[in-house]
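Observation: inputs received (chain + 2-phosphoglycolic acid).
Thought: call the complex predictor directly.
Action: predict_structure
Action Input:
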Amino acid sequence: MRKKIVAGNWKMNTTFAEGEALVKAIIAKKGEVKNDVTLVVAPPFTHLTCLAEELEKAGIGLSAQNCAEHESGAYTGEVSAKMLASVDVKYCILGHSERREYYGETNATLTKKIDVALKYGLIPIFCVGEKLDEREANRHFDVINAQLEVLTRLSAEDFGKVIVAYEPVWAIGTGKTATSAQAQEIHTFIRKALAAKFGAAAEQTPILYGGSCKPSNAAEIFAQPDVDGGLIGGASLAADDFIAIAKVF
Ligand code: PGA
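Observation:
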């Protein structure tokens, strides 16, 4: 049985006070979610240290949204995987399409980031997904295959720690969701591509869907056999919606 995971990507939202209130509201409702569903939240860097203990006690995973590709040194403004691990962050989102698009992250950057994240014991939540023009040109499988090269070069041991998120760029923050059939098609494609390298281990890899996921569409998407949960942006900023999504399992 694969893990079921619902992760909230807060992006660059919430002041510390707002983030603290959001965490309290999520914790208060966590009892409504089945025990076999792992909840993860990814607040901004500034909030991580102060939220770690409360989340740990509540059994909710704490994630960063990014980490530096370097281990340490003269990289003004960057936050390292080692620093994140030192404040009990457990997961790290890597390769989100906003990082790829606005900060120029490539497979080369992400290869370094995933290696350093794994070195310091962080669980990568590795995002892949095609843009609208790529889908329209029927290139979505090629694009995703190329993005997955960051994972297929990992050792079997490291690969076993990774969570994948399929986030079609055209569905992120747009209100347009992939249909459940589109999600399933790509999730199976990802699992097969990973199985070609890692064999049966790919059966254990959680593959999350992300892109305008909300309480009204989560049930249908999460019911697909290769969809193991969601990476939620906008809807993770309201505790009621985030919990409602996790409750569809
Ligand atoms: P969204 O974002 O749910 O707001 O579309 C998802 C994501 O970018 O992780």
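Thought: report the result.
Final Answer: The first strand starts at residue 4 and ends at 9. Residues 4-246 form a domain with the TIM Barrel fold (CATH 3.20.20.70).
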